[in-house]
Amino acid sequence: MHTHDFDELFWVEAGRGWEWVPGGRRRLEPGLLVLVRAQDHHAFSGDDDGTAVEFVNVAFGRGVWRGLVRRHPVSQVTPYFLLA
Questions:
Q1: Is the separation of the CB atoms in 65 and 7 below 8 Å?
Q2: For residue 52, is pLDDT > 80?
Q3: How many Å from the N-terminal Cα to the C-terminal Cα in the chain?
Q4: What is the enclosing helix (H) or strand (E) of 11?
């Protein structure tokens, strides 16, 4: 598992796989949108049957996310994301 010095947003485009987080793993399937905060520990792998997962990953400075939270309360934003 790893962390970052930036926040990231990833969208699963195709395939199936797993995001490994403390305490286990979460299923990754097309259409899933996930916010990973810089301090979150995570890793990725393809599916158990060898299927790959393809995703688009956008990294942005921590100040960007803090600015969004100031403008849009987390309670309004979190229904659209899985948080690590």
A1: yes
A2: yes
A3: 12
A4: strand 7-15
